[in-house]
Amino acid sequence: MVKEVTLPFLLVERANQDSSGVALRQKQLGIWKEITWNDYLENVKKLSIALHKHLDFKAGEILAIIGENKPQWLYAQLATQTIGGISAGIYQESLPEQIRYYLNDLKPRIVIVEDQEQVDKLLSIEKDIPFVEHIVHYDVRGLRHYQNPKLISMKELLKIGEEHLKVHPAFFEQQITLLSGHQEALISYSAATSGDPKAAVYTHHQLIEAAKNLIQLDEMKKTDDYFSFLPLAWIHEQIMGIVIPIVIGLTVNFPERPDTVIGDLREIGPQTVVASPRVYQSIMSNVQVRLEGASWLNRKVYQLFKKYGDKRAKAKLEKIRLSAFDRFMYFLGDAIVFSAIRDHLGFARTRRAYVIGAALHPEAFYFYHGIGVNIKQTYGGTEVAGIAIVQRDDDIKAGSSGVALPNTEVKIGIDGLVYLKNNAIFSRYLKPEHQRWIVDGWISLGDKGFIDKDGHLFILDRKEDVIVMPKGEIYPHKIENIIKSSPYIQEAVVVGKNRPFLTALINIDMTTVGRWADKRRIIYTEFSDLSVNKDVIEFIEQEMIRLMDELPPQERVKKFILLPKQFTADAGELTRTLKIRRNHVENTYKDLIDAMYSNNGTVQVRISEAEIPLRIIQLERNLEVTEDVLIANAY
Q1: What is this structure's pTM?
Q2: Helices (H), 430-588
Q3: What are phi and psi of 137, to 5 degrees?
Q4: Strand-pair partners of 254
Q5: What digits encode the pLDDT tens for the residues 328-369?
Q6: What gap in Å lies between CA 114 and CA 66, rounded to an integer?
Q7: How far apart are CA 19 and CA 41, in angstroms?
């Protein structure tokens, strides 16, 4: 029987072609441990037969996985798919009530988790998930004395699989022949910036085509390294960290822990980097602040060559020819300064750094291209298997998302929404009622945008977030990006729908503001201490005044509050991919928002069992509400 192209089939092919090649690296106790393609395949073989023979897992069933990025996730996913099952990832930071939602949506009999933390979450909601019969864990620390009969370690399961393979040595090969490329293989949840997350179901064929579409445009090599640190529950990381490596044969590297990501990235120096705007913005902010604290000589050297880096970035992004002298000075600056910065950041070998999940502010684009990092904006989402639009290496426009990948179409509907269609679009939603979002194969992710004369897609904002004012539409995300271009501001939410003017809730950047405060000997112990400090408030006020000068009057924030706590996914203010959940934020902080539209100068909030006044910072005086503004916001 002819074997169809599926992920397990491609894994077998890869292991046959390069059995001793390094497929995965996992950092443990400071040491990078290598796993060959043959080791990868053998673990998948053992786990798949153990799931089928010992836990009675069958084709068509759903298996849920919860954990950080580690080889065991890949073994679990490929083993599930070998049997004809469907793998569904759940974000490892999810709270028990969020896991309850996902599991009741999926109804899996088997859940594979990383460690004691995840086991404890499941046991705390055990009565709400009676359909879960087996909990497989792959880190046994702290679990040796647990007596729950549902628990079994992956190590034990692999041993059981090894014994079964002795009796059924052809099991794996036989299973592969039963698979179809159009068989459902993966469930991925949308970010859910508003409402509940929607579960998109993918076939093997769709996942493989998504990988091929990107590879067809941006070449990746077998000898490349990829650094996998974004959650594997996210479809973008599924394609980049699991599918493309199997298709190409490149090596995937996993960090030791979430808090070692930056150092581990520096050690690996991957050719391809994929990260959210928040990651790139944080890296840029840290570089800028560290340069401020550098020695006089180092600052002068950097400032000397920075202007040539800026010219080089401008030439590339705006298609302007550099003079021979400017090219020489940039070459010199790269040898002396920029290459050292890239090496320190982990970008020494990076050919492409993709921005996913949201738009990165143009200022950051100029910064990264100025130091020689080929950063590229993308656009896509869960329903189109991650990246669908991307900037070309030789055609990058700051502010655009690029042009469509091969086998991908994009159009703007009469409603102003962006619509996408490609050969990797998901097969269906898990819940039939969500299927109404797809019309004739086209799907909109809810964003308004336009396509310029060169075919570049520009995203304006989510349709539901657009603010209508007398002089036109206002796009909060654009303003928030400008605010977050300050190295001292981590997050901002602009408010103004059905309001007379714009206001903002702001999170300072704890790291950079902390360094600023240390230099001025300002005493603080935690985030809230900095946020309410008089000097910090005045400093951020000056930053906001500077930033608002970039915008026309109607788009300027008139008042803002520094929040005493950071936005978090646990509190529901962010998605697990660090996008703002605007409706939740506006509902949670309604009293603070309402206060900014009053004549009050402060608003009372509770911090650590104490009531304290938060200052409302007004950037413009004599705020008058004109009649046309009231009329525009009445509808």
Answers
A1: 0.90
A2: 476-484, 510-519, 527-531, 534-548, 582-588
A3: -120, 145
A4: 26
A5: 999 999 999 999 999 999 999 999 999 998 889 888 999 999
A6: 6
A7: 9
